[in-house]
């Protein structure tokens, strides 16, 4: 089946949601998720659930509470509203949700995450943790032995994160920000309707697409990523770049479609691909500043990579910020000061696979403590 599936390249870019809803597979990487492109996502997911599941339980971003489009989901009884704008999901949020699910008289047969990356990740983490005995913090890491949990479906209301496909649930724990990386954390169904992003705030729309751009960009530069992932990333990079070259103040259907297509490519490319330097640097910043959103952390990091990503990543980042009238984000606005440099350096130095992704096997010839310290010193001084 692979040959046939790797064929359909030069996909015709859908111009509007009608065309998008007819789109078939537009990515090359093998993924576990069934992607349903839709022009009426809320009705479609309810219809599919009614056909395939008995007891869905919804995990919904509470910012959607005021939006009539989500009324049919919000009026459901089995639901949990997550305050996604207050914090990225924490391990304690997962533990509380798992406890709530376990206390239900009838265990749900599917958890449905409705929202942006954080809300989807919370649903993914709770789905898998529900079948495993330890706390979520004990499962942060790679390839840990975990049983398959409750089935996970998602309905993204912000596109760009790729969380609708990835087998990763990024969590803030008591000690570190790190994902539960496990195949059982991948959603089995993702219903994608670009129009559901209509109510997103400009800031969220902009920064989520920036992170999408960084993922694609870094994977295209990677020395350790699979060929299909790099090919997916190239297409995603072009689309994210087109979206970010416009002022994103208002919703635009054509851009929403491009963003949805780029986001799925972001999910697929990160399954077979690996990001690089800006992401490695961003994890040190994130660990030093609990309130700093991931996408802003990577932007700050990319702005410190003028020498490393001088062939476009840096210059485009500056350009996208200017087009959108966004000030350059500063680490100091999130409480990061020179006293954090040591701890941030240790975190970033531990991201071996990301350094290897960019510099190859002998990355240690270039990257050491001093190299990373200099980057952080530049960041805290700017
Ligand atoms: Zn990222």
Task: Break the fold down into its secondary structure elements and pairings.
Layout: H1 2-6, H2 17-21, E1 34-37, H3 41-52, E2 56-61, H4 71-74, E3 79-82, H5 91-103, E4 110-115, H6 117-129, E5 141-142, E6 151-156, E7 168-172, E8 177-181, E9 189-192, H7 202-220, H8 227-244, H9 253-272, H10 277-288, H11 294-303, H12 313-323, H13 341-349, H14 352-359, H15 369-381
Parallel strand pairs: 1-9, 2-3, 2-4, 4-6, 5-8, 6-9
Antiparallel strand pairs: 7-8
The chain binds zinc ion.
Zinc ion is lined by residues 211, 214-215, 279, 294, 298.
Which ligands does the model contain, each kind named once? zinc ion
Strand content: 5-15%
The major β-sheet equals:
6 strands, parallel
Name the helix and strand elements from N-terminus to C-terminus, one letter apiece: HHEHEHEHEHEEEEEHHHHHHHHH
Q: Which stretches are poorly predicted, pLDDT < 50 over at least 5 residues?
A: 1-5
What separation lies between the terminal Cα atoms? 51 Å
CATH T-level topology of the largest domain: Rossmann fold
Q: How many E strands?
A: 9
Provide a compact summary of the structure:
With 382 residues, the chain is α/β, with parallel strands linked by helices. The chain has helices at 2-6, 17-21, 41-52, 71-74, 91-103, 117-129, 202-220, 227-244, 253-272, 277-288, 294-303, 313-323, 341-349, 352-359, 369-381; strands spanning 34-37, 56-61, 79-82, 110-115, 141-142, 151-156, 168-172, 177-181, 189-192. Strand 2 (56-61), helix 4 and strand 3 form a beta-alpha-beta unit.
Describe the structure.
- With 382 residues, the chain is of the alpha/beta class.
- It folds into two domains: 16-197, Rossmann fold (3-Layer(aba) Sandwich), CATH 3.40.50; 202-381, Dehydroquinate synthase-like, alpha domain (Up-down Bundle), CATH 1.20.1090.10.
- The chain has helices at residues 2-6, 17-21, 41-52, 71-74, 91-103, 117-129, 202-220, 227-244, 253-272, 277-288, 294-303, 313-323, 341-349, 352-359, 369-381; strands spanning 34-37, 56-61, 79-82, 110-115, 141-142, 151-156, 168-172, 177-181, 189-192.
- The strands form two sheets. A six-stranded parallel sheet has the order 1-9-6-4-2-3, sandwiched between helices. Strands 5-8-7 form a three-stranded mixed sheet.
- Helix 8 (227-244) runs antiparallel to helix 9 (253-272).
- The termini are far apart.
- Residues 1-5 have low confidence and may be disordered.
- Zinc ion binds at residues 211, 214-215, 279, 294, 298.
- The site of zinc ion has 6 residues, from helix 7 and helix 11.
